[in-house]
């Protein structure tokens, strides 16, 4: 499994264990015409280069009345110029969006810059490496180390640039309030 698939798997497992009554599921972007052998939590797939698939996925999420959409962003996963097909989906969904940026580019191309600018305008929160956390063996990368609930606090350990592990925390009530006020 790639790093983002591992991140998504761990996030799904954490949410499903913490909120067993929630209908938590995954949508996968695929680069093949036929399906990969995805685990059961993957309920729908988007063909990477099919713009209509991104629109259909937004319709599906809206129809299912999803409470929140968690997006794992990395350049090279999504179709279109610098992955701009993802933006078509994000513009159409009616739920809060939590975006994790797995790479921050110091010198993005014009198309990458446009995508990042719109992603940063769409909704919050973002988990990104701070200015003093961007150097290392693999610079400008944030790696998830899963998440867990400790009492009423969501704990998100993550690694930065392959040299350090840090912990972000937020009271669950505050996170839910932030997500629901954006709905």
Q: How is this fold's topology laid out?
A:
Blueprint: H1 3-18, E1 26-30, E2 42-47, H2 51-63, E3 69-73, H3 85-92, E4 97-101, H4 110-122, E5 126-127, E6 142-144, E7 148-150, E8 153-160, E9 164-171, H5 172-181
Helix pairs in contact: 2-3
Descriptive notes:
- The chain is of the alpha/beta class and 183 residues long.
- Helices cover 33% and strands 25% of the residues.
- It starts with a helix and ends with a helix.
- It is globular and about 40 Å long.
- The strands form three sheets. Strands 6, 7, 8 and 9 form a four-stranded antiparallel beta sheet that branches. It has a three-stranded parallel beta sheet with strand order 3-4-5, with helices on both faces. Strands 1-2 form a two-stranded parallel ribbon.
- It has one domain.
């Amino acid at each position: 499994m790639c790093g983002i698939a591992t991140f998504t798997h761990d996030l799904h497992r954490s949410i499903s264990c913490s909120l067993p009554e929630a209908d938590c599921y995954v949508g996968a972007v695929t680069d093949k015409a036929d399906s990969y052998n995805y685990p059961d939590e993957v309920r729908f797939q988007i063909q990477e280069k099919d713009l209509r698939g991104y629109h259909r996925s937004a319709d599906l999420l809206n129809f299912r009345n999803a409470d929140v959409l968690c997006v794992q962003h990395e350049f090279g996963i999504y179709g279109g110029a610098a992955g701009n097909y993802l933006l078509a989906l994000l513009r159409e969904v009616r739920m809060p969006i939590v975006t994790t940026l797995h790479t921050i580019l110091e010198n993005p191309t014009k198309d990458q810059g446009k995508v990042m600018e719109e992603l940063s305008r769409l909704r919050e929160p973002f988990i990104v490496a701070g200015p003093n956390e961007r150097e290392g063996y693999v610079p400008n990368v944030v790696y998830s180390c899963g998440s867990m609930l400790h009492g009423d606090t969501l704990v998100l350990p993550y690694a930065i640039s392959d040299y350090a592990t840090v912990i972000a925390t937020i009271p669950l009530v505050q996170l839910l309030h932030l997500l629901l006020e954006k709905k």
